Amino acid sequence: MKGYMGKILHVDLSTGEIHEEEIADEVYEHFLTGVGIGTYVLYRDVPADADPLGPDNILGFTSGLLTGTASFMTGRWMVVCKSPLTGGIGDANGGGHFAPAIKQVGYDAIFFKGVSAKPVYLHVDHRGAELRDAAHVWGQDAVVAEEMLTKECMGRKKPRIALIGQAGEKLSLISGIVTDAGRIAARAGVGAVMGSKKLKAVVLNGSKRVKYHDPDGMKGYSQTFAEKVRTASVPPIISDTLLKVIGHITGRNRYEAPSDGSSSYALMKRFGTHAGTQLSIIAGDSPVKNWQGGPADYPTRDSNKINIRGSGIDKNEIRKYHCAQCAIGCGGIVNLDGVERASGKFTHTHKPEYETLAALGPMLLNTSPDSILYLNELLNRAGMDTISAGGTLAFAIECYENGLLTREQTGGLELTWGNHEAIVTVVEQMIARETWLGDTLADGARRASEIIGWGSEAYAITAGGQEPGMHDPRFSVGWGVDYSANPTPGRHTNGATAYSTLFLWERVSYAPEPQRVLKEDLTKPDPEYALGTVLATQYKMLIDAVGGCIMGAAGGVNGWDLFRMLELATGWNKTADDYMEIGNRINTLRQLFNVKHGIDPKDFLMHKRIETPRQSGPNRGRGVQMEPIVSLHWEKHGWDPNTGHPTNETVQRLGLDQFFGEVVR
Amino acid sequence: MAVRGKPTFNYDLCVACGICMHACAFGSIEMTHTGVGKMKKAYPALDRPDTCTGCRQCEQQCPVGVIAVKA
């Protein structure tokens, strides 16, 4: 009666054995579910020398503790594994409708180990779990395969399916796992792990109910939240013109200060994340030309082509949709009728997110919205990460422009900035892995630079091997902390930069209220700012442990009260400080996983290109050296400031040694 | 034998969260109702009324109380 199901499912793909494990209440109280229980099982069961693409690695699909309750913004699922891209812990999360289905078949999470001899999928319904032959769907893209499996497995209700496309099957290290006809948990190479296990899909069709402490109280709180969202609306005056003006004002603002992010509810409800693209480019938030350019390199006449009007996304939106338990609904389906490349192939696509537009637009100086819409659908179907694909393409273009890739190696393609014809062709080759170039780039920029050599690592902009999200630390240094200090580096949803919008200082006894600070001052280590980045990171662990969405969290704890919802679900009578300690415990265990697996946390520092100050534009004069800033972040987290390893005192205080005995540190 | 009811939805207050769709054990509800307001949103609808048993789970689990199961 606390919102969790009390057990997890283990599937050994080498032997075909399937068994349940009951989880003690004590484990839930210390780790919750979602990323928490995922990390708990990974730390416990993955041996230190496990090959990420071998039988000893474990791939876990987890739901959140609040998923299946009457709470809002809590329907996301998480996938966890040892990442083949970074070598450390890997996780990614997705929306859609897969998360409730995990609990509806009776489990908080499903874990796979071993490697199947032939392609299989797992089917779970009220009769139990079984592995089935997947030869007929192996080789199909994720959308086609989902349609086939939906028909094949239709029960009383439609099954919910997570699966890989061609990229995961071909072990691309930048591949993800797909649900809902093209939504993707994209990061950390989780698709390659699934492909290495010959596991095409997980098909769930259950109807078990989630029992929890106070359903009436939860509904009462949800009605309050729904009213906030219902009354949040975008004034008709909001247009591309006004967003451009806001972009210029934001770019000229030299300060970071607390801000109420609840207005994002209205923008997300009306448009989705794509609306902020041009604003972010103008303000200096979006990386341009492989992190070496600025707004002047992708001027307004260019960004006009991928803004709300220019991209055609808003005009051609067929319908909006919500993920499970979402009151906002930032998703949408866009008609591709006018996109020539898609003709005869695809009729529609999910509305491209900001990250996709930025990675395939200004990063490549690409001004063709049609190419981005086409690539969005192509990559979603193949199950390849659009952020890493964009980062890797930018790397390849810079190599070609500087003579490190020859025309012979590109197969005659003029792989130059903005050449969208060549960009589309290279992505098709990356998915197919059929040419030398496509095969080389399919594993991301760092692996490609190791093959190409000639100093090309200077152009491979990654954090720990993963291409960072589309936000420049020179615009807001918190992004650099996210990319460099998180045990899953390079992620755009880790939270450190969000502290000033979370209002944790109104709930957590030791959380400092952020002051108005010059951005220049934050390019040097700042103790109070460092504590904020730690608290925001730990709070994000709670979000990922309950199935939460950062669009809900954007309104701060006064807009979307995670602590209260946890109390209504569990009845534990914990304080906000108690819950923050759980966030600390989860993130510390993620770092311990990396230490156990031989990762030097300093190897995850973001590429040094961001140390170079911009000469002009909104970020002029600002370069960021991450090492001292990350060192202070580690210290505030209770980790050794020199090594990044959690200290003995922290491990004991969080009780981690009680669960795992001698932990590696 | 009592006639079992079927759900009706108040679209003025519905937030399209889909909780009712997931609550339905019989696949009776899908997010297929469009044409409400200007937002082009897909709202829940009793898509397969023949499979609905009138169990009221959708009504009980709706966080915002917009579902009424009526005979």
The gist of it:
The complex is a heterodimer of chains A (665) and B (71). Chain A is α+β, with helices and mostly antiparallel strands and 665 residues long.
Give a written overview of the molecule.
The complex is a heterodimer of chains A (665) and B (71). Chain A is of the alpha+beta class. Chain A has 28 helices and 17 strands. In chain A, a hairpin with a 5-residue loop joins β1 (7-12) and β2 (18-22). Chain A starts with 6 loop residues before the first strand and ends in a 5-residue tail after the last helix. Chain B is an alpha+beta fold and 71 residues long. Chain B has helices at residues 19-23, 57-61, and strands at residues 6-9, 29-33, 43-46, 67-70. In chain B, the strands form two sheets. A two-stranded antiparallel sheet of chain B has the order 1-4. In chain B, strands 2-3 form a two-stranded antiparallel ribbon. The model of chain B has no long low-confidence stretch (mean pLDDT 91). Classes of the chains: A alpha+beta (665), B alpha+beta (71).
